[in-house]
Design brief:
Number of helices: 11
Helix content: 40-55%
Largest sheet: 8 strands, parallel, barrel
Order of helices and strands: EHEHHEHEHEHEHHEHEHH
Structural class: alpha/beta
Strand content: 15-25%
Bound molecules: erythose-4-phosphate
Shape: globular
Radius of gyration: 20 Å
């Protein structure tokens, strides 16, 4: 499983990558707007922070030509291990095909149906990003959509990966992981929740108490 962080907040990225096996960072126009900073300096700071991990950055152009220009600017001004996120609009599919021809790495985004994912995969994209929580909010069963996409890619021998996105709780993350997606992108809050359990904390406290009762407070194995 590839874990990506769905944020443009540098402190959160730094903290998360120190602790967890992060494969990269995903952004979209909404996520970058939250930082209230100039766009390219922000993206370059993220690149510097994550090194050669993946950075997924989204085009904002409406036409294929504009999307291609956005992609070129991202490549020139940010670069590195960059994935160009393109929404699955008609102009977007056109841009995906052209970007792949030109050698870009591409993530098809804003996916709500298996059909959109299959079309994007046939454009040659590297990742498809279905929006789990947004699908759940229209009673569309995000996990079933992921299940269908992974099945379709397997049946049609397509190498495109599924990068499940848009999560509001841990259950959604567990469900899509079981449905066979290869990657997930989650906000920092969800990532930390995924890692924790109150009973784990209680267990660790009990170990400490038992250990200290016999070997002394603050004693460590390395200084016995
Ligand atoms: C991925 O990068 C998507 O843009 C993102 O996960 C959407 O999440 P949201 O539905 O919480 O806005």
């Amino acid at each position: 499983m590839l874990y990506l962080l769905d944020t443009a907040n540098l402190d959160e990225i730094q903290k998360a990558q120190e602790t967890f096996p992060l494969a990269g960072v995903t952004t979209n126009p909404t996520i970058v707007s939250h930082e209230r900073r100039e766009f390219f300096p922000l993206l370059r700071d993220i690149r510097a922070c994550i090194g050669d991990r993946m950075l997924h950055a989204q085009v904002v152009g409406k036409t294929c030509a504009e999307m291609l220009k956005d992609a070129q600017a991202l490549q020139e001004k940010v670069g590195g291990n960059l994935y160009i996120k393109v929404p699955v609009s008609p102009q977007g599919y056109m841009a995906m095909r052209e970007l792949k021809k030109q050698g870009y790495k591409v993530t098809a985004t804003a996916i709500y149906t298996p059909g959109q994912a299959l079309l994007a995969a046939n454009c040659g994209v590297d990742f498809t990003a279905p929006y789990i929580n947004r699908i759940d909010n229209i009673s569309g069963m995000g996990v079933n959509v992921v299940q269908m996409i992974t099945t379709l890619f397997r049946l049609h021998s397509l190498p495109t990966k599924v990068l499940a996105a848009s999560f509001k709780n841990i259950q959604q993350v567990n469900d899509v992981s079981l449905a066979g997606c290869q990657a997930i992108t989650i906000g920092p809050d969800i990532l930390w929740k995924l890692a924790e359990h109150p009973l784990t904390d209680m267990s660790i406290d009990q170990f400490d108490q038992d250990w200290e009762g016999v070997y002394g407070k603050g004693k460590r194995i390395y200084n016995l």
